[in-house]
Write a structure and sequence with these properties.
The complex is a heterotrimer of chains A (about 200), B (about 425) and C (about 290).
Chain A: H1 5-24, H2 31-37, H3 42-48, H4 52-75, H5 81-98, H6 100-110, H7 114-117, H8 128-143, H9 152-171, H10 183-194
Chain B: E1 2-9, E2 16-23, E3 26-33, H1 40-44, H2 52-55, H3 64-81, H4 90-123, H5 130-151, E4 160-161, E5 164-165, H6 171-192, H7 197-200, H8 206-209, H9 215-225, E6 237-240, E7 250-253, E8 256-258, E9 265-268, E10 277-280, H10 289-295, H11 299-308, H12 312-334, E11 356-364, E12 367-376, E13 379-386, H13 388-392, H14 404-409, H15 415-424, H16 429-433
Antiparallel strand pairs in B: 1-2, 2-3, 4-5, 6-7, 7-8, 9-10, 11-12, 12-13
Chain C: E1 2-8, H1 14-19, H2 25-31, E2 32-36, H3 46-51, E3 56-62, E4 70-71, E5 74-75, H4 76-86, E6 87-93, H5 95-99, H6 101-104, E7 132-135, H7 142-155, H8 167-170, H9 181-185, E8 251-252, E9 255-256, H10 265-277, H11 281-284
Parallel strand pairs in C: 1-2, 1-3, 3-6, 6-7
Antiparallel strand pairs in C: 4-5, 8-9
The chains are: A mainly alpha (about 200), B alpha+beta (about 425), C alpha/beta (about 290).
């Protein structure tokens, strides 16, 4: 899909903002800060994003779309539930290592400053692309009887809470190894927890 | 010199074969055979218990609502037998009874105008006016609108579920139902028995009944003129198991009512027909409007019984009068429902978690209906249905112990008399064989 | 006057009784003559009907078909094959006649509908496809039948879908016209039966968004419908009827296993996620 020039510019603003927000935090980063890092005028910034809050919400949607896209790709593969879990964990940790600002932003801005997101990002609407793909992953693997049927949120919490927690610990420099070295164990833990029991 | 006549009886929600043995121009024996069998009891076995609420109405197109009532009662009895008391609001009970009463009313109207009156007129060498039939059909449609108002549609709804009903009506529905039942009552008052409903339901003797013009009087006049009044007497044994609305449980030999217990119900299969016999304590009984009237100690039924016992006169009159009694009851119930009560109170335990047996009874148009449900490991392990026509239309293999119908046919002298007596029981072929 | 011969296979008579609710019966009988009908007066009796040799306009078959079912002392299948040859149009009336329905469950190998065996086009009478029209429903609505008869009578043809069902009736979903639509739009689930509020799709097993029919457009008994009165639609016009556990919505990880007709999983989940994020106060409250 070819993006228009305006859309490409928006994305470069988002990516620059991601880096700044995740380093300095939401309140300590200003629109002039972001504009300066991109060699843009502040006025021009407001052409793309009328406010910092709207930018914050769009960043969340963008991030969710990027990760969602990866998971959608995995969902469309013909693999077992375990193989898909492993691929999802790998993608998540990959992003955490190559584009750490994305996961940082999620943990340190989105989750920690709910007040910014309360009107315009109600419920899960700003992370909907990502959540939809996780829902599809679960639905298809329960339908094929590889995973146990249960309430969506109990499975979601287990999977995503676990991954987010690991990335958080990495960010705090508590983990001894690189994230990629935990992929196998974590994938197995998730799979064993969620798989359908044989009767 | 004996001769045997075999005739296919049709338009009884299906067909049957009636074999009569004639001697000296009188019926001395009979057999009723049903041709085939759809296996509903087997279809329901193995299913989820609540699915029975959708399947059982399809036993029959005209009494499916009674099947639903017996089914939900059976399922609720499974809870009771597991020590779980379900609370069903008076509002839900009333609405269930209202819709079931309406199914009975529409059945009787169809029976009277499509079947009985044309037969009687034919015996009197006349043709029953078609306009009256369409008028009655229109009124029967109105009672079905009452059912649809609360249950969504008729035939085939499943709005009764363990714990209550699925619908939550407002006064708009109550008023709508009221105007429909008013039309039914008006029809009875103008066409069937020309008087006020308050007076009609209070008539307690046959002589008074004959003072009023209308279709009922026409029927009585023909029966008197053609000497039909004493025909069709059977064992004078009546039984009722359902307790909806104005009906009471019990059995009676002649007119004294006694208690009944379902453990004495016995079914027996026969090799020449798909219908099974059913007896109570090894005897054949009659079910239906006459039985209901006798056991509820209806004064008119008892009065007629003094002279006519359980002849077709009593059977036909009490079936016609049941239209009035039920219409009156429906109106009373509609005006006393408390809409503030809950329509449905969810059982604390899912029925799939229970095991055991449940007995469900309901009074269908033609008589007592019984569903025996056994649940095991969350599925229906066994489902037994006993229908009113099974009670009335048994075949005794022992000539000295006739079934209700066989006894009623004994001694009849003409094909017309046989037709009339046969139809006075209002058979349902699909129900009988399931 | 057009002739109708209405015969029955393995049935409960539900479609016959439903037809008796047709409000303009007198007018109907001025346009159509019943050579045979299971309840109304007819020129032939049932034995004569099965033996009828002449050509006639409409054969209505109510009920499922099997090779050894006996009606009125004769083999139904053998007789209906002859009648089918002589009929100008054949109507498979009701879900049993259309796909096999409830009575197919007794012997799934040997009992079928007229044209269809569940969703496969190998019913026992499928060779008559070119002149057969399916009007499923358990039971069928009387207006659906009369519409089909009138259309064929007047125009000699009728627009049908790929299951030979009249499109003007079955092009709609039962969902169209349900008075609880707003709850569906905003994904406000009904938590229990017996309430005026809430959509029955998520928990109570309602199949209306997946079922073809006009139940909420042409009301039942001219007054109501299942879903308007708080009962879930059981999907009785489709080949899958009867299903299992019909009072519950089958879910995989809280997501309905069967989604509205033609709607993709992603589309449905995205919309649902968004709708559920908003709590519309009015829709959470009782209507009165």
């Amino acid at each position: 899909m070819v993006l228009s020039k305006k859309e490409q510019k928006k994305i470069s603003i988002i990516e620059a903002s991601l880096k700044l927000f995740s380093k300095k935090g939401f309140y300590n980063t200003t629109i002039p800060d972001i504009a300066k890092s991109l060699d843009m005028s502040v006025g021009n910034m407001y052409n793309y994003f009328p406010s910092k809050e709207i930018l914050a919400m769009d960043i969340m949607q963008y991030t969710s779309n990027v990760i969602g896209e990866e998971i959608r790709y995995i969902n469309n593969m013909k693999l077992t539930a375990y193989e898909k879990i492993k691929k999802i964990v790998t993608v998540y940790f990959n992003i955490a290592e190559t584009k750490p600002e994305m996961i940082e932003y999620f943990l340190r801005v989105y989750l920690s400053n709910r007040e910014i997101f309360k009107s315009g990002c109600e419920g899960m609407i700003c992370v909907s692309a990502f959540v939809t793909e996780i829902m599809i992953f679960f639905e298809e693997n329960v339908r094929s009887k590889e995973l146990r049927d249960q309430d969506f949120f109990s499975a979601f919490g287990l999977f995503m809470g676990y991954l987010g927690g690991m990335v958080f610990l990495k960010g705090e420099n508590v983990l001894e190894k690189n994230l990629s070295e935990y992929i196998k164990d974590i994938s197995q833990n998730i799979y064993f927890a969620l798989r359908a029991q044989s009767e | 010199m004996k001769r045997v006549s075999k005739e296919i009886v049709e338009k009884i929600e299906g067909e049957a074969k009636l074999e009569l043995v004639w001697e000296n121009e009188k019926v001395v024996n009979s057999k009723i055979k049903f041709f085939s069998y759809r296996g509903m009891e087997e279809i329901i076995t193995g299913k989820n218990p609540l699915d029975a609420l959708i399947l059982t109405p399809r036993v029959c197109g005209i009494c499916g609502h009674a099947q639903l009532m017996a089914c939900v009662h059976g399922l609720e009895d499974v809870y009771a037998n597991n020590g779980i008391k379900l609370h069903i609001s008076q509002k839900a009970k009333s609405i269930r009874d209202i819709t079931l009463d309406c199914e009975i009313i529409q059945n009787h109207l169809k029976w009277l105008f499509f079947i009985i009156m044309p037969i009687l007129y034919k015996i009197d060498s006349k043709v029953f006016p078609k306009d009256k039939i369409f008028q009655a059909l229109n009124i029967a449609q109105k009672t079905n609108k009452i059912i649809a108002t609360f249950a969504g549609q008729w035939p085939h709804n499943s709005y009764m579920i363990p714990g209550g009903i699925a619908s939550d009506p407002t006064f708009v529905e109550i008023f709508q139902a009221n105007s429909f039942i008013d039309e039914v009552i008006l029809f009875f008052e103008e066409v069937i028995l020309k008087s006020d409903i308050e007076n009609i339901v209070a008539i307690d003797n046959f002589k008074s009944l004959l003072l009023y013009d209308g279709i009922l009087k026409d029927a009585m006049d023909i029966m008197e003129k053609k000497d039909l009044q004493d025909l069709g007497k059977s064992h004078d044994r009546f039984i009722v198991f359902g307790e909806n609305s104005i009906f009471e449980r019990g059995k009676a030999i002649k007119t004294t009512a006694r208690h009944v217990n379902e453990k004495y119900i016995q079914e027996e299969a026969l090799d020449f027909t798909f219908a099974k016999n059913v007896k109570y304590n090894r005897r054949f009984y009659e079910v239906g409007p006459l039985s209901r009237a006798i056991i509820a100690k209806n004064p008119l039924a008892k009065n007629i019984h003094r002279q006519y016992k359980d002849s077709i006169l009593n059977r036909i009159v009490m079936k016609i009068m049941e239209i009035a009694y039920l219409s009156y009851q429906v109106k009373k119930s509609l005006n006393s429902i408390n809409l503030n009560e809950e329509s449905y109170i969810k059982p604390k335990v899912k029925i799939e978690a229970l095991e055991g047996e449940g007995h469900g009874f309901a009074e269908a148009a033609r008589g007592s209906l019984y569903h025996n449900i056994k649940i095991k490991k969350g599925k229906i392990a066994n489902y037994d249905i006993i229908t009113p026509t099974q009670w009335n239309l048994g075949n005794s293999i022992n000539e000295n112990k006739t079934s209700t119908l066989q006894q009623a046919l004994l001694g009849l002298k003409s094909k017309e008399a046989v037709t009339l007596v046969f139809r006075s029981f209002d058979e349902c072929s699909v129900c009988t064989t399931q | 006057m057009s002739d109708i011969l209405w015969i029955q296979g393995i049935t409960c008579n539900g479609n016959t009784q439903s037809f008796l609710n047709y409000p303009n019966m007198k007018l109907f009988l001025k346009k159509y003559n019943f050579l045979y009908h299971p309840y109304l007066e007819s020129s032939l009796n049932v034995v004569q009907a099965f033996e009828y040799e002449k050509k006639f306009d409409f054969l209505i078959i109510e009920g499922a078909v099997s090779k050894d079912f006996i009606r009125a002392g004769v083999n139904f299948y053998e007789k209906v094959k002859n009648l089918a040859k002589n009929a100008k149009y054949i109507i498979a009336l009701g879900t049993c006649a259309t796909y096999g329905g409830i009575f197919k469950e007794k012997d799934p190998e040997h009992i079928t509908g007229v044209l269809y065996d569940k969703d496969k086009e190998n019913g026992l009478l499928s060779k008559f496809k070119s002149k057969t029209f399916n009007i499923p429903g358990c039971p069928t609505h009387p207006q659906w039948l009369v519409f089909t008869l009138d259309t064929l009578n007047n125009f000699g043809k009728i627009l049908v879908d790929d299951l030979s069902r009249p499109k003007e009736i079955f092009g709609y979903l039962t969902h169209h016209g349900c008075t609880r639509n707003e709850y569906f739009e905003w994904k406000v689930d009904s938590k229990n039966f017996g309430e005026k509020e809430g959509c029955l799709f998520y928990l109570q097993g309602c199949r209306a968004p997946i079922t073809h029919g006009s139940c909420n457009k042409i009301l039942w008994n001219e007054v109501n419908s299942k879903t308007r009165s708080g009962s879930p639609c059981f999907g009785c016009t489709e080949s899958s009827f009867p299903r299992n556990n019909m009072f519950e919505t089958k879910t995989f990880m809280s997501i309905p296993a069967d989604l509205p007709d033609g709607v993709s999983k992603r589309a449905y989940l995205t919309i649902t996620g968004i709708a559920k994020a908003f709590h519309i106060k009015r829709l959470k409250e009782k209507l009165m």
